[in-house]
Structure formats: C-alpha cells, structure tokens
Amino acid sequence: MSFDEDIATIAEQERVLVFDEFNADTxxxxxxxxxxxxxxxxxxxxIDITCHSMPMFYCALPxxxxxxxxxxxRKRNVVMNFFRSSYGIGRQLARDETTVQARYxxxxxxxATHGGSFPITVSGTGCIGAITVSGLPQREDxxxxxSVLCEILGRDEQKIALxx
Length: 164
What we know:
This protein has helices at 3-16, 24-41, 66-82, 86-95, 100-104, 138-153, 157-160; strands at residues 46-51, 54-60, 117-122, 126-134. It has 164 residues and is of the alpha+beta class. The protein has a single domain, classed as Haem-degrading domain (Beta-Lactamase), CATH 3.30.450. Strands 2-1-4-3 form a four-stranded antiparallel beta sheet. β1 and β2 form a beta hairpin. α1 (3-16) packs antiparallel against α4. It is globular, with a radius of gyration of 14 Å. The model has no long low-confidence stretch (mean pLDDT 97).
C-alpha cells in the first residue's frame, strides 16, 4: 500500500474502533485477549494498556526484553501527544520525509512513531489512553492491536485491515 492508502485506512480504523465505555475491567479483557493471541502464536511481545498516566494492564511474554518496555513507552507517548495511532503518525511523517523531532521538536528518546500503539477512544469523550504492543515488525504490532480491537468491538476487520 502507498503511504496515502495506509494513512486513510488507519484513520478509518481510528474512527470505528471506539469504545462506548472503558474501565479497568475493559482493560483486563482487551489485555488478556491480546496476551492469549500472542501466546497462541508464540509471539515475544510486551503488551501495555494505559489510561491517562495510570497503567491498567502490562504483560511481557517469553522472549520479550527490556527494550520492548522502552519501545512501549515511546510509542504510547506518540498516542498521548497526538491522540492518533503511532503507526498513523509514522506513516504520515514518512510520506512527508520528516521525523517527529524535525516536525514537532519531540525527542526520539521519548517518542517512537512506529506501529503498535493505538488510541483508546471513548464515544463522547475522546482519547483516554493507549493500547500498545511491542516486539514484532511495526506493521505487525499495529495489526495485532487492530485485530483484537475488531474482535472485541464487533467490527469487520476485513473492511478496515491494512494490506499485509
């Protein structure tokens, strides 16, 4: 897919993957499902769900490392700054041939515009946090989160999926 196709598809994902409500129980359901899918596939990932500044779920599967925790933090910072997915921001910056540091003055040490962090958006409220996966190639991190959100929210993944 082209940058523009990816950007449009990710924007549609962000538009439709919205919760009616989100609380600690919801975080547990989403995080547990992400963990189950990752474990079934033997994926060495870290999974994080944070609302505002409060951690609500964290899991590091076998094979993941402390680097994954650092990537989680940096990707989550992108979502919490822009209220958009880290991959969407990354694809937009790549299309424009720039970086988060050059365009916005945000340090690479604190912001990673790589796939894997997706906004937790609540209808009528807006973005309240981020669901983040780290450990796979960035497109796969992003797709894993989107796939589980489609399952939980009852959305047709095929209608909003990025090309492999």
